[in-house]
Amino acid sequence: MEIKHTDNEAKGVFYIEKEGERVAEMTYLHEKPNKIIIDHTEVSETLKGKGVGYKLIEASVQYMRDNNLKVNPTCSFAKAIFDKKHEEYSDVLS
Fold this sequence. Notes:
Blueprint (H helix, E strand, L loop, with lengths): L3 E4 L3 E8 L2 E12 L2 E9 L8 H15 L3 E4 L2 H9 L1 H4 L5
Parallel strand pairs: 4-5
Antiparallel strand pairs: 1-2, 2-3, 3-4
């Protein structure tokens, strides 16, 4: 499953498509030049429970590390993952 990413400097999304249809996504907003807010994560029913949401978070963490960004996860799913992996992700938490 390929995770794709788009960013237009105001907001961005990590997503997965299957047969031209978006089946999973994690959206974020740029709050400051070096800070983003993860505001939404959604995974289709057919992919739930398969770790797809977690993979979207992992892709976003790598993006943040590569671009020297910090995050404030307000999405309940993302917040739960960041709380669970606090030590591992502490370098990107704001």
